[in-house]
Amino acid sequence: MNKENYTYILTCLFILVCFSCKHGSGEYHSLHDKIQAKSISHQDSTLSSEAFFSHYKTMEITEGKHSFLIPERKSQITSYACTECHTEPLDNLKGEDLKKAHWDISLAHANTNTMNCATCHNGNDMNNLKTLTGMKVDFNSSYKLCAQCHSSQFEDWKGGAHGKRIGGWAPPRASLTCVNCHNPHNPSIESRWPSRFNTEQIEEAYEGLEH
């Protein structure tokens, strides 16, 4: 390489270094740099979502790396505590001459070969639920039962991707649990009309009335 070419290359590199980083106000090298710069002023923010879920009685849980608030469950169950009626083991409360209870509950969760009432409810400890292996689970932590079969949804829920968040995205995080959206005895979400009307159907309905 002769001296002229060498000098030319050095000059080009010098110009490139000097002028490539000359950004005006509000300009950034990358989107990542912009996010970091814009986030600095919000790190000490006092913005909170607590005011939006103050009507909920909440409790803090920790699942893996995630700690957040969930609604307390037991105070929302009309018939809790169960032992107010279940004063004896469940087998002793069966009989034709005894008053039927929970007649309004129909289990439509899985087929009868897979699940029945005793899958989640412990006949000897009605104030608590139980796992498939017989471990006691508090009603406030009923999501742990759901996680046994619905593991992928549970992982998404822990991270905030599944389920409804209460209040907003500002800390502290508060999320509804499985039973706040799904009936545990019949968890399928029923079909329903969208929140916005279908204008074509409305027009067709009006046309039908005119005729």
Explained architecture:
Residues 109-153 form the Doubled CXXCH motif domain. It holds the Pfam family Paired_CXXCH_1. InterPro entries: Multihaem_cyt_sf, Multiheme_Cytochr_ET, Paired_CXXCH_1. It comes from Hwangdonia lutea. Keywords: Signal. The strands form two sheets. The chain has a two-stranded antiparallel ribbon. It is 28% helix and 8% strand. The termini are far apart. The protein has helices at 3-20, 31-39, 143-149, 151-159, 178-181, 199-210, and strands at residues 58-63, 66-71, 129-130, 136-137. It is built from six helices and four strands. The longest helix is centred in the first third of the chain and has 18 residues, at 3-20. The protein has 211 residues and is α+β, with helices and mostly antiparallel strands. Helix 3 crosses helix 4 (151-159). A hairpin with a 5-residue loop joins strand 3 (129-130) and strand 4 (136-137).
Strand-pairing-aware structural class? alpha+beta
Residue ranges: pLDDT <50 for 5 or more in a row?
none
Instruction: Give the termini separation.
Output: 91 Å
Major sheet characteristics:
2 strands, antiparallel
Strand content: 5-15%
What's the average pLDDT? 82
InterPro entries: Multihaem_cyt_sf, Multiheme_Cytochr_ET, Paired_CXXCH_1
Organism: Hwangdonia lutea
Domain Doubled CXXCH motif: 109-153
Keywords: Signal
